[in-house]
Structures are given as structure tokens and as C-alpha cells.
Amino acid sequence: MAQPPSQYTGFLYFVVRSPAPFVAHVQINRPQKLNAFHEAMWLELRDVFRRLSTDPDVRVVVLTGAGDRAFSAGLDIQAASQNPVLQGGGGGNDTDIDAARKAASTRRHISEFQECIGSIEKCEKPVICVLHGISYGLAIDISCCADIRICTRDTRFAVKEVDIGLAADIGTLNRLPKVVGNFSWVKDVCLSARDFGADEALAVGFVSQVHESKPGAVEAAVQVAKFIAAKSPVAVQGTKEILNYSRDHSVEDSMSSQT
């Protein structure tokens, strides 16, 4: 696998390689913590995907998680508990900030978090997400932003936020109903925070392929990426843009946007 270009070597929590011409492989790289996210990670994620979006040497992106145990366990709860903004503070040293200013600060923080995760969806290049092992909470937010989802047989999914007293506010509740098209099932998994497996994910259309092992799933994703990368990049990127626009607009509005 080729070494990363210089613009991708400075990241602490992501490794970028090129397994094939015009294909970038982005790996979430915090396996000792099950690839759980803290603030520095989602800020890096945004930076990685902004660069990939405009990189002329990249036409397709494969996104995976390092290690054998998890794509991502979601939000790093321990790190979040030490974040003054997420704990209702203003993010500074003043503990006497009034409630309105605290709320405004928290809202700005969450909006930035949403923007960082949404950078995957906004990336001009198609993104293929390979899920394995534990794929909880933020893993669902991330994968909903991808264009194609592939998983391993051992993947355990969950929209876990209800279990920690939260509503999922980083995008799952907005994107998942449009990804699978089964509102009853979406409410089932979101309201209960229950686990579901690869077969159920395939049955409702959340993933399009299931593989027995992580290496097999990654290889399948790279093969799909190579196939797409061989197409006209202008046509591919235009197709992604139109499909995403049509998902969020009426047929008439979508057709008008193309003229």
C-alpha cells in the first residue's frame, strides 16, 4: 500500500493511504480506545475530508476503523465529561456565565461537531464506509454520511444515545430515516437503543454488503472503489451531488436544479 502524500501525514488520529490509483483509504486510528471520538478527533476528521474533497489525485474514499474490536465505540464519554462546554459551562474560566450564554456556547459547539461529521457527506468524492465489531452511536452518524456502507458479520450496531440520556443530535435522527426508508424500524432502534446485527442491517438496507471478516470487507470496499475510480470523475461527482440533493428535495426541485 502506498505511503500517504505529504498533506496527509500530520494527523494524530487518522491514517491515510492509497491502496490503488485514485483511491484513498482513511483509517480511524485510536484502537486502544475502540476508536471512540473526542473533540480533537472530529476536528481532524473535518480537515481530512476537506482535503480529500479537493484532492485531484483522489476519486473515491474508503473509511475504516483500526483494530479488530471496533469501527468506533462512538463518543468518548470520559473525555466528554471533562469538556466544560458539554457539561453546561461556557468553555472559559468564568463559572458565573448566565444560562443563556451557556446554552449559546453549547449550541455553537454542537453545530461545529455536526459540521465536522457532515464533512463526510459534503466530500465531493464518494465515500465507502466499512464497519466492523462495535459500531455504536457516533459510528452510526458517520456511516449515515457515507455513500456506501459495507460491514462484517460480527458488527454490532446501536443508536446508543438514549441509553446515556441523550437524543442523537449529530445527524443520525435526521439521516437514518432517509437511508433505510423504514420509519418504524428507525424508531424501534432509536427509541430502544438496542443492538442490531449485520443481517438486520442488510435486511433494512442500511448496508449493501456483509462479509465474514474485516480484511474481506475492506478488500471488497477497495474493489468497489477501484471500479468507481475508473469512471469519469466529473460524472461520478455530479451523480453524488444530484442524488444527495434529490434525497432532500422534491422531484420537481431536483430536476430544476439540473437545468
Automatic annotation (TrEMBL):
A Pfam entry, by short name: ECH_1
Keywords per UniProt: Fatty acid metabolism, Isomerase, Lipid metabolism
Metabolic or biological pathway: Lipid metabolism; fatty acid beta-oxidation
Superkingdom: Eukaryota
Keyword Isomerase: yes
Family the entry assigns: Belongs to the enoyl-CoA hydratase/isomerase family.
PANTHER family: DELTA(3,5)-DELTA(2,4)-DIENOYL-COA ISOMERASE, MITOCHONDRIAL (PTHR43149:SF1), ENOYL-COA HYDRATASE (PTHR43149)
Protein name from the UniProt record: Enoyl-CoA hydratase
Organism from which the protein derives: Phialemonium thermophilum
